[in-house]
Amino acid sequence: MRRSPVTTILCFLFALALALPALADNSTRAGDIVVHHNAVPTTSLTPDVARQYGITRSANRALVNISVRQGEPGADRAVQAAVKLSATNLSGQRLELRAREVREGDAVYYLAEARVTGNDTLVFELEVTPEGATAPIKASFRQEFFAQ
Description:
Immunoglobulin-like
């Protein structure tokens, strides 16, 4: 049985999150909502997956992945949300990123691309307003990228 490209990217991003030393650093909880967030070089995607989703594979690009879940782990569900996202480098250059929604079955996640230059560190700031919520959940995370 052939796995769909979306399932492949979800599996990759999930495995990446598990490999990180502190998974809690890649999520933000507000009540029963958890916002998961991470960023990876686009070169870590297979050419087929990148092509399927219109992602540019380049040493100068990063892919930001955001998902919103509601409920207890194991019994949680995906939640649609309005996502605002920006990236700022250490020189203070800020770029607003466009996050686009991707769905497969019950899974909902948001993808955005950011430019990186050589060895770069980006600080991502996000505001996620889950469907039905009146106030956004704010989070930020920092990611280092290394020239390849």
